[in-house]
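To the team - 2-acetamido-2-deoxy-beta-D-glucopyranose complex, inputs and output below.
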Amino acid sequence: MASLLYFLFLFTFAPLSESQSYIGVNYGQVGDNLPSPEATAKLLQSTAIEKVRLYGSDPGVIKAFANTGIGIMIGISNSDIPGMASDPDLAKNWIDNNVVPFYPASKIILINVGNEVLSYNDPNMMKQLLPAMQNLQNALDAADLGGKIKVSTVHSMAVLTQSDPPSSGRFDPTIGDLLKELLGFNNATGSPFAINPYPYFAYRSDPRPETLAFCLFQPNSGRVDSGSKIKYTNMFDAQVDAIRSAIDAMGLKGVEIVVAETGWPYKGDKAEVGPSLENAKAYNGNLIAHLRSRVGTPLMPGKSVETYLFALYDEDQKPGPTSERSFGLFRPDLSMIYDAGLSKTSQAPSTTIKTPAVSPAPEPKNDSWCVPKAGVSDAQLQENLDYACGQGIDCGPIQPGGACFEPSNVASHATYAMNLLYQKSGRNPWNCDFSQTATLTSTNPSYDKCTYLGSGST
Ligand SMILES: *[C@@H]1O[C@H](CO)[C@@H](O)[C@H](O)[C@H]1NC(C)=O
Ligand SMILES: *[C@@H]1O[C@H](CO)[C@@H](O)[C@H](O)[C@H]1NC(C)=O
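Output:
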């Protein structure tokens, strides 16, 4: 998806960081106006970003992150794969020069061997990928770093031939054997399967308003997976779960997924569909709130997928349309381009999320109610209300004369309906999502004669 253009530019490196250990950022350096690595490390420490992905292994950058606690992914370029595959000594030298001197002060966590190699039509390089990874793993083991630092490779979404609905996600059969071997390596070494899902590109190929809302985590009617019957309310979850289904279908359920890149440009050329400040802020802001909520995806509930935002800075020397140089979150003077909710002091949504009832592993025995998050607009609440009452629940109590009609305002009526739908649809965390405008509470909202359904009252 994002692949073609990215191959060309991302050869240097990209760091990532996040305020939760599952939020990271890509630190690409194809720019002539970028802040120093030291200033960058300080910037990340001031945010909720806790991991950074570099596309290469620049020692100056790796050193700048020493003693910051920030986890670091480093990378090996596609062109280095043949050498690493054929010569174990080269792999050993690479580890001895790029990893050993810096670890553990610099918290290197993963080495990505190549970027989207399987989406290039280069059978020779594809054949050499796993041997290169194996030689690097052996070199790490020899340096006593096996298990502490993992080895993986980054895939584009193009490894799937089928992704819709998510439960039918399957890998391209022409690279099936190779993927099975790579997943076997992931499974044996405990390293993650890394992918680059871009709802932005999905929207560009289907630029309808309802697709935009689905891609931006905004209120939408959702898409029911005809196989699993799960209703998806955002494209990110759908794309990640399609990968999950494909991995599971290979019999490797234990392999974890990492999102190595995802993002949305805030600016583009006139002819480009999708880039805008508003859309970029909605995508990244809602994605970060989604990750911080730890709701997870329908197939991986209760835990956020480790996700590296693309990207920390604009890279002004990348070729292509304006959007390619406009994925940044921060300006060269370290100010925010827009507020994506990355501040360390978590914002209203994440505070609400920290109530016990919203902990990652939902406790079905504990009573919980689904209510709107603080700050959700009346317009959004109205959409939630209309949506919930359209799903066959009994909205009689919020009609005139009903026990929950007063106070007669959209917030009160939406809360009643959202909770009722949550209770009726199975009380799973994703039933209380409403495009990231809802949260669970352990406080019973019932009042007077108005009773909010909970698990105890069924
Ligand atoms: C995955 O790894 C586990 C633990 O090493 C092993 O027991 C299992 O057989 C592996 N599964 C596959 C399909 O390779
Ligand atoms: C509710 O949750 C709390 C905290 O997780 C736990 O200690 C308690 O046992 C739970 N109550 C029930 C009825 O499961």
